Amino acid sequence: MADPQLARLHDPSDPGASLARLQRFVDALFCEPATVGRLFGDATLDAACQAIGRDRLRALGLQPPAQAAGPVVYIASKLQASGGHSAALADTIRLGPRRPSVVLLTDTCGRTDRAEVAQRLAGLPDVQVAYVPPGGHLAKLDWLLRELHRLAPSDVWLFNHHQDSVAVAAVQPGQGYRLHYYHHGDDRLCLGVRLDWGTHHDPLPFCAHNCREQVGVRGNRYLPLAVSDLGMRPPGGWMRDGRLTTCTAAGFNKVEVDYVLQYVDVVPRLLAATGGRHLHIGQLTPVALRNIHTHLRRLGVAQDAFTYIPRVPSVWRTLHEHGVDLYLASFPYGAGRTLIEVMGAGVPAVVHRHCTTRLIGGLDGAYDGVPTWREERELQAIVGSVDAAFLHAQSRLARAWYERYHRDAVVAAALADPDHAPEVPALKPGWTPDPLLQALQALREATFASLLKRRVYRLLRTAKAWWGRR
Description:
The chain is α/β, with parallel strands linked by helices. The chain has helices at 4-7, 15-30, 43-59, 84-95, 114-121, 137-151, 165-170, 205-215, 252-255, 263-274, 286-299, 315-321, 336-344, 358-361, 376-384, 388-405, 408-416, 435-445, 448-468; strands at 70-76, 101-105, 127-131, 153-159, 178-182, 199-202, 221-222, 245-249, 277-281, 306-309, 326-328, 349-352, 372-373. It has a 7-stranded parallel sheet with strand order 3-2-1-4-5-6-7, with helices on both faces. Strands 10-9-8-11-12-13 form a 6-stranded parallel sheet, with helices on both faces.
């Protein structure tokens, strides 16, 4: 590492402190808006993690097993009830070849809710879950290395969080297992992206293209996200009472982000224009909810036009239950798995074209022919022209895309034989950066409030990581 700051990240005489510094370094970059959609993986950081793991493997005297025919091991940092990451792990186990599986959770990025994990993995055959004992980074790494040696797995899947240096250090070449890196942390820097000795799996089209063409990952494979089929939108017509019902499903981390357009401003104005209803699924902060209701009142829109549901068992079923006509994809950050549920449910979508990078808004994960918008006037024009015929045609396009790429059978075939994986869909035409909006975005990110928010976010992430090591 030529740069002094990078050189300080790896001190061979203190591997535990080095792992902690690597985690903090990635955490700091994670919280910087300037890195989102621009920085994805770094060979120097991954090499530092690997060097620490290699030294510890040698210090522990662990030799490669004579025969690596044990279970499939999945290493994850933390699992939770909501979010695509935990669902993707469960789906990979569920749809993969029937083999004994062990999930190892490092808890370096905060503690996992064990009851929630048991519920999420319930029903999967022959799956065990083990938690790395509390302790520092070095103790966690040593435990993982010993456990991998004891289990002698045939395959190891990495589902690590962006900053989990312990997980990336624990997997080592020459130990008898095949490594599979699942690149779910696709919109910003994530450790493990440049582990070139393993197989790199990208679950979203834009991530697959970006890793292959920009990041320099050799031989990456497209492994689409899967969502079990819960059926098309029930019959009964569109805009049942003559009003448009829209919906967004996302947490505050995707919509309460410093950006030139704010979700809390756009939704009330959308309701004022349509006279319809909007359903929000996902946790919002009290400040965001207060702002939405304040805007509704100022615009003369009834408060019950906006419905808030913090958590649902299934976005798919909820879309059907509420008769949603049009899905407004979250912005500025899209949600890949949620959009797949929307398409499978046969619900038309409208997707934001991010002003800085196409990798953030989720544009390329949507179906061909999806309407898109960048400035609010474009969104208003789309919803103003919606009628039953438009919604019906868009519904068929959305459902056809789901059936082609995201059914269980498609992903199961790809896991059984990578040669059966579908081709990566082409990037959607028409995206271009907007220099003026980019300049306004840079000014917004430089405000005192934005800097303070990032500082608080870093402190919260540090606190969660400390709590996980107790």
